[in-house]
Write a structure and sequence with these properties.
The complex is a heterodimer of chains A (242) and B (439).
Chain A: H1 2-18, H2 22-33, E1 38-47, E2 53-63, E3 67-74, E4 82-86, E5 89-93, E6 100-103, H3 116-119, H4 124-127, E7 128-136, E8 139-146, E9 155-161, E10 167-173, E11 179-192, E12 195-205, E13 208-222
Chain B: E1 4-5, E2 8-9, H1 10-21, H2 23-27, E3 44-59, H3 64-70, E4 77-93, E5 96-109, E6 113-130, E7 133-140, E8 172-182, E9 187-199, E10 212-223, E11 226-233, E12 241-251, E13 254-271, E14 277-294, E15 299-307, H4 314-334, H5 338-351, E16 359-367, E17 376-385, E18 391-399, E19 405-415, E20 427-438
Antiparallel strand pairs in B: 1-2, 3-4, 3-20, 4-5, 5-6, 6-7, 7-8, 8-9, 9-10, 10-11, 11-12, 12-13, 13-14, 14-15, 15-16, 16-17, 17-18, 18-19, 19-20
Helix pairs in contact in B: 3-4, 4-5
The chains are: A alpha+beta (242), B mainly beta (439).
Amino acid sequence: MYKIIIFLVTMLMAFPVYALDGTALLKQVDRNLNPESYEMYRKLINVEPDGKKKEFTLFSVKKGQDKVAALFLAPASEKGRSTLRLGDNMWLYIPNVGKPIRITSLQSVVGGVFNNADILNLDYAVEYDVAKVEETGKEYLLHLKAKNKNVAYDQLKMWADKGKKLPTKIECLTAANMLIKTLYFKDHKDFGGGIVRPAVIETDSPLYKGYKSVMIYAKIKKRSFKDEVFTLTYMPNLESLR
Amino acid sequence: MPTRLCGKPILPIAILFLILFFPAAVFAEESYTFDAGEIEKKPYHFGGYVELRPVMYVLDKDSALYQLQYYQDPRSTLMEWNGRFQLEGSYEKGIGRVFVKTNTDLRYSTFANGSERTAIFDGYGTLKPSPSWKFEAGKKTLKWGKGYAWNPVNFIDRPKDPYDPDLPIEGYIMATMDYIRSFEGPLKTFSFTPVLIPVYDHINDDYGVNNRLNAAGKIYLLLYDTDLDFIFAADGSRTTRMGMDFSRNITTSFEIHGELAYIRDYQQPFLDSAGVLQSRTQDVVSGLAGIRHLTTFDLTTILEYYHNGMGYSADDMKYYYNYIRQGYNRYNSTGNAQMLNAAQNLATGGYGRLSPMDDYLQLRLSQKEPFDILYFTPAVTVMFNLDDQSYNITPELLYTGITNLELRLRAGFIRGSRDTEFGEKANDYRFEFRAGYYF
């Protein structure tokens, strides 16, 4: 009888370990990728099938769950352009045009495989629900479903390292299960301030055969901003935050 | 042991073959670098843009505007060489920043020989004590409005070119302030931008009536995910103007926008049916309604309807074209160009505006990166005059694949019967190549 009680208690205590909380896991992945509010420097490289490259350097800032802005630092033809995202709203400011225009998440301000949703990405847990979690050896496989139709990809399949709780690969799919692109997370790096995450994200797409795009992270730092930074009126002034 | 073919190792040959014909495969193993120097912020910045733009016009010898422009030097084609050189620099320290942008336009044609114009397009100082407050003074543009081709609520700036709306324009000297507040809830952003524009001798003297200090302003709201602007320009060098605009995404890929402007006591010179110059003063309303749509295969459609309350009717334009023809006939018979000179003056007074009439429709279709050709965007723009059913079709090819270089090939096909806006343009066709380099 004593043994049966110990067995039951052990089983009851062990059960929560195996019932994975997908939402908590996704939130943990989000926090391991970035602080909730941060400043960041990135380089985007589009690589054509013949090896020709085009590079863009961006300074990005994020606050809370739904406020992101990015400023192009290079090349000279793009310098001063900025993009702003407030929830589902996105704008592009071009210095010559002189006023922000609305853009969509599926467009790409840089061309190539990365679109605006990839560049101005929010936390995954903000845009996606966890439909299912599987365990595949050293990785979790999270099946994510978009919370609404405004999200760029209807479904994501995210492979995450069990120990580090960081993504290794994400497949972006349509509602009809068609693969739009695959993101590969590489080269873990210590950015300081407790941020250890992949420094390179590569992407390819069956829609752009032979092309690929790469995002390299140079600096990520926790930082807080006033809400007014994330407004249309402030878009021409993002440089002053650097 | 490597595989051998005819006594030669295959592996090195295969690697050489791969390097020569599949450089991307080699690149796949390349490690990426990102130097800290690339993101280091300097207090100063210098940059610029240089452009070469040859244009060939195939002229319409029977059109009124041809007769007005080329009556002394008839020709069937015109070759024009345009150059543009822009320099910009800024210096930032603490909460202060100064910015200057100069523009030099060069033009040479077989008709008008060479010309050069240099101007400071922007030159202003900024003080930004906090993200909520910004003060600026100097020469700058405001670019108010949401329309792509036209902005009836842009009461202050010089008019933009609806056929090339992204071109930079010269600013006016002014003082402005921005106050921004953010909120939680349906109203996410509020901002207020008051503006003062002085008009005195040698200061903004082409803006309007001299010796006035003009006040204007804009209130911006992001309310229920809709951009809303309320704009005013008080009576001064120009008559009182009020307006509003909006922009909103209906879906992620479908945007609607609009503008409405009310202008009091607008004074318009016009020619009556007898060719006598008259003037009428009236309150006018201008408006714009537009959509922007993006398909899953990256085709962007922009459709805009524009009502120009300050425009001329089809009859007004007909009387103007008749006046030019009479002047042309008189010049040919007597050598007297007085009427043609008067018609030239009327062109600068309103008849020669880029959209001089009442109602227009513009449709622009642009396909991003078709056939997987990165950075390549073919587009076609149709400008349709709803008053006289004349139109202009502009196909273009844009390539931006080489860093900092932008190449654009464009044509213009202009169609319309006699006495219509596009039928009376000086040219039937135009072909243009633009190469622009940023540095």
